[in-house]
Structure to design on (658 residues):
């Protein structure tokens, strides 16, 4: 996948906060095959389809206005994501739907899907929306955006992610990971073979993978269920001592022969006996304790470590060949 | 792999010696050789003199009788020795050096031998269990490991008491210089009740002090050693219940899911530590199945080994092993 992976990484966002990140995401995805299905600046500018957002600032054609929004459709016209700003650049209503045939909308209200919106951040409806904290208070942030320009083999999913950390810090912060599933690991009737990981604090760590039973940070559709479901994820997911003990992702150390790091696939399941969702394609679980910004195989098909508090296990995310991450 | 898989299944051997003898018979038919053996009275240092699983001359059911059996590829050897009764066995393994020496009553040794089971009860009361043994006559693709396993269940119940699995690692999941991509599982759980007997969660699980009843070479040829290793269980601390193993139900399309088992040794357990790889044959099921459930019986099937029951049995429930196409396992 490395040759089809593109990134806008090592970016700095300061006062624009979450608006700056979403603007970078829009710019990146537009440049790599995604389309802007609609947008509004929260004031008077509106287009559907079309992109009226020309900056991360406030004012005309800016994204940093109350109720400004942008909807991005994937390169295969399979699904879309809407980012709708609230009263500050930290609070957003973020949704996804399995359609790119959206209608309606105006400068302050996004488009309507013929299907169901999966609410990732916020609540309510287009008519009565609620906006929730999706980013921290603006500061000097390091931002990385990575996407694949081709779909995951055997599916119609185009993975992408954005990562935000405090500049100079080794703890992950705002994280939005949209990843496909390995062919053959998900139900034959699953038309949405993807999993989303979304959180915005530094509390997450690789050990949280096994702790997602009631959490909304792991999401996905399940066939026949019309609301976006919470999932739980298992990395190497190894428990000790029977019930309820500690997972040990990150507790193996390096390969005893090569001295190199390992990572293992992450399996997503539903918590209410609705079965396995599938095995994630890109996001993996690290078996060695590292710091955010460390890399694996930097020259070819690399991964970046994305870690919470020091000493905890990490996620490993596909990265851009040869580009050293900066903190 | 099904065309190269054979088994002797659904048997009710009268003794543990007959059970182990059936393992030897199966493996020999699949290309394994017996370079030395003893019936407890007479030593044969050049071949297999054990012609029956009974007691007496040339029988395996004699105190201290033993045999060494070698993989078709010639690399590894396993040594089985009967103890004071047919329930009691010692099982050892040599990765490379080979077993030599030995007497009529003393098993041979190898400088790299690892003891998998040491003069302890391996079987329940004679004649009370269903016995299965399965093997592949070709090595696991990309490796030099010949998979085989045997298991015993209380007759008429879904209780697994005896389990021995020699499984390789799936190609691409272990270090290419690892010349021993093999993991061996060996354990016995006493008792016969569905809720309390047989192998349980903690038999299949691991403790921080003693990783598990699974063992493997870590870094063979690179200064490593044969040691206990962990089998992944895909656990969830917050809900106290494995999210994958046994508890998540079928895929939405109604089929059962299986999950590969990752193997490694934790830093907390002491050197040699690190990842080992992913098992090629043994799996976790995701659906709370119990013996004698099968998956894909018509082609490349698996049999669920463990017990359906309370949480304590869940891990045992989760273990699935390669099975014989079209053969229905019986209680």
């Amino acid at each position: 996948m490395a040759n089809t992976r593109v990134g806008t990484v090592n970016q700095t966002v300061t006062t624009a906060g979450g608006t700056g990140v979403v603007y970078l995401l829009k710019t990146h995805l537009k440049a790599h095959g995604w389309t802007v299905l609609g947008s509004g600046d929260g004031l008077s500018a509106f287009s559907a389809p079309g992109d009226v957002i020309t900056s991360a600032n406030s004012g005309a054609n800016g994204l940093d206005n109350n109720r400004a929004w942008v909807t991005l459709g994937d390169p295969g016209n399979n699904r879309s994501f809407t980012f709708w700003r609230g009263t500050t650049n930290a609070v957003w209503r973020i949704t996804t739907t399995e359609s790119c045939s959206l209608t309606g909308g105006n400068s302050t209200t996004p488009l309507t899907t013929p299907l169901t919106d999966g609410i990732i951040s916020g609540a309510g409806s287009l008519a009565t929306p609620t906006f929730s904290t999706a980013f921290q208070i603006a500061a000097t942030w390091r931002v990385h955006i990575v996407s694949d320009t081709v779909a995951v083999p055997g599916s119609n999913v185009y993975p992408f992610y954005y990562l935000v950390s405090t500049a100079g810090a080794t703890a992950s912060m705002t994280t939005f990971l949209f990843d496909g599933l390995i062919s053959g690991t998900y139900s034959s009737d699953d038309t949405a073979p993807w999993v989303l990981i979304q959180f915005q604090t530094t509390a997450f760590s690789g050990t949280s993978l096994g702790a997602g039973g009631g959490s909304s940070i792991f999401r996905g559709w399940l066939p026949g269920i019309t609301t976006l479901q919470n999932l739980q994820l298992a990395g190497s997911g190894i428990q000790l001592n029977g019930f309820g003990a500690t997972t040990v992702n990150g507790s193996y150390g390096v390969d005893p022969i090569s001295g190199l790091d390992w990572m293992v696939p992450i399996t997503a399941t539903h918590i209410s006996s609705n079965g396995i969702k599938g095995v994630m394609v890109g996001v993996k679980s690290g078996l060695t304790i590292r710091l955010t910004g460390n890399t694996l195989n930097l020259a070819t098909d690399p991964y970046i470590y994305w870690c919470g508090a020091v000493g905890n296990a990490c996620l490993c995310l596909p990265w851009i060949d040869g580009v050293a991450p900066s903190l | 792999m099904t065309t190269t898989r054979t088994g002797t299944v659904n048997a009710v051997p009268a003794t543990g010696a007959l059970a182990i003898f059936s393992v030897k018979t199966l493996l020999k038919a699949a290309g394994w050789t017996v370079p030395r053996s003893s019936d407890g009275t007479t030593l044969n240092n050049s071949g297999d003199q054990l012609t029956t699983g009974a007691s007496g001359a040339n029988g395996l059911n004699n105190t201290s009788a033993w045999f060494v059996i070698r993989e078709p590829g010639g690399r590894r050897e396993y040594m089985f020795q009967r103890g004071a009764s047919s329930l009691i066995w010692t099982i050892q393994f040599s990765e490379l050096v080979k077993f030599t020496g030995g007497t009529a009553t003393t098993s041979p040794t190898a400088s790299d031998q690892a003891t998998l089971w040491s003069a302890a009860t391996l079987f329940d009361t004679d004649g009370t269990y269903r016995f299965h043994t399965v093997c592949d006559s070709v090595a696991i693709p990309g490796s030099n490991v010949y998979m085989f396993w045997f298991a015993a269940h209380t007759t008429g119940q879904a209780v697994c008491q005896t389990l021995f699995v020699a499984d390789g690692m799936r190609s691409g999941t272990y270090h290419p210089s690892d010349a021993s991509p093999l993991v061996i599982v060996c354990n016995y759980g006493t008792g016969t009740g569905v809720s309390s007997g047989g192998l349980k969660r903690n038999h299949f699980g691991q403790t921080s002090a003693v990783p598990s009843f699974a063992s493997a070479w870590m870094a063979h040829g690179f200064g490593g050693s044969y040691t206990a290793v962990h089998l992944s269980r895909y656990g969830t601390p917050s809900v106290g219940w494995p999210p994958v193993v046994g508890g998540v139900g079928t895929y939405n399309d109604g089929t059962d899911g299986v999950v590969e088992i990752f193997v490694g040794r934790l830093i907390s357990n002491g050197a040699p530590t690190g990842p080992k790889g992913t098992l090629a044959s043994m799996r976790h099921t995701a659906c709370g199945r119990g013996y004698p459930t099968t998956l894909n019986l018509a082609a490349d099937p698996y049999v669920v080994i463990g017990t359906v029951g309370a949480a304590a049995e869940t891990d045992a429930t989760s273990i699935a092993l390669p099975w014989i196409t079209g053969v229905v396992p019986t209680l």
